[in-house]
Amino acid sequence: MLKVGKAAPVFEIPDADMNMVRLSDFRGNNNVVVYFYPKDDTPGCTTEAIEFSDMQDEFAGLDTVVLGVSRDDVLTHCAFRDKHGLSVSLLADADGEVCEAYGVMIDREVEGVGARRALLRSTFIIDKQGVLRDAFYGVNPRGHAREILDKVKEL
């Protein structure tokens, strides 16, 4: 698990439009909310993405950018975004390096299969200096965007 008060792990991965997004691009200008979710177009992930999108203007008013990250590829992200009219940026971590750096990959027992790596729904708030200010692991998607917005207001 990441330590609050330390520099957030940097990354450079593509968004749904295949543009490279770097955490360092926001340094000095924006706070960043990075939320990790298991899979595009599943019920919990859709709820979470819609709630973050619905609050996009409120986050922007607090100089905050919201980035959703999963292991899905850019084409899947594009279809998910377009199907639900999402306004948050969806980033593709197909090789899982960013997920590993943020400590959101866990071993989970699957009956009849054994241990499998799974993405734990988690969210990180990073301030304008690139410092991790809050970390939430194993979150419930419903109402989570409001919880994070309230935390960003405390920055």
Walk me through this protein's architecture.
By secondary structure, the chain is an alpha/beta fold. It has a single domain (12-153), classed as Glutaredoxin (3-Layer(aba) Sandwich), CATH 3.40.30. The protein is 28% helix and 30% strand. It is globular.
Summarize the structure.
This protein has 155 residues and is an alpha/beta fold.
Mean pLDDT: 94
CATH class: Alpha Beta
How far the N terminus sits from the C terminus, by CA atoms, comes to: 21 Å
Helix content: 25-40%
The biggest sheet amounts to: 5 strands, mixed
Structural class: alpha/beta
Q: Could you list the spans in which at least 5 consecutive residues all have pLDDT below 50?
A: none
Strand content: 25-35%
**Helical run tally:** 5
The general outline is globular
Short descriptors:
155 residues, alpha/beta, Glutaredoxin, five-stranded mixed sheet, two-stranded antiparallel ribbon, 5 helices
